[in-house]
Amino acid sequence: QSQLVESGGGLVQPGGSLRLSCAASGFTLDYYAINWFRQAPGKEREGVGCISSSGGSTNYADSVKGRFTISRDNAKNTVYLQMNSLKPGDTAVYYCAVRLAYVCYGKADFGSWGQGTQVTVSS
């Protein structure tokens, strides 16, 4: 069974850091770019960023640029979202999704989605 599983969420104080993982099972992530999204209560889902299949290219939403970093370890079939300098506005459920393309630009459909992991930034 093909699935994505996010982990690493939790409660963190403002200014703190978390690293989320997105692990695939039943298929290889090697050929796909991966997107991270988030959805806060009462708000629409928004894109956080994307990493190309090779890991050589990333892009980020302006709201997280300079604070979040996406990386991947294809040998572990896992993509990571390192979140630093967290703010209360980063509180949301975070999701990873398989982008059915090698690259992060241009139109593309999405394949598998993870179930999401809650990130809460609060003092």
Given helix and strand content, the structural type is: mainly beta
Q: How many distinct beta strands? A: 11
Q: Spans with pLDDT under 50 lasting ≥5 residues?
A: none
User: What's the alpha carbon Rg, rounded to whole Å?
Assistant: 13 Å
The overall pLDDT, averaged over residues, is 96
Number of helices: 0
Measured distance between first and last alpha carbons: 39 Å
Q: Give the helix level as a range of percent.
A: under 10%
Commentary on this structure:
With 123 residues, this protein is an all-beta fold. 0% of the residues lie in helices and 50% in strands. It is built from no helices and eleven strands. The strands form two sheets. Strands 2, 4, 5, 6, 9, 10 and 11 form a seven-stranded mixed beta sheet that branches. The protein has a four-stranded antiparallel beta sheet with strand order 1-3-8-7, with no helix packed on it. It is globular, with a radius of gyration of 13 Å. It starts with a strand and ends with a strand. The mean pLDDT is 96.
Key traits:
50% strand, single chain, 0% helix, four-stranded antiparallel β-sheet, 123 residues, seven-stranded mixed β-sheet, 11 strands
Short structural summary:
The protein is mostly beta strands and 123 residues long. It contains no helices and 11 strands.
Topology:
Layout: E1 3-7, E2 10-12, E3 18-25, E4 33-39, E5 46-51, E6 58-60, E7 68-73, E8 78-83, E9 92-99, E10 110-113, E11 117-121
Parallel strand pairs: 2-11
Antiparallel strand pairs: 1-3, 3-8, 4-5, 4-9, 5-6, 7-8, 9-10, 9-11
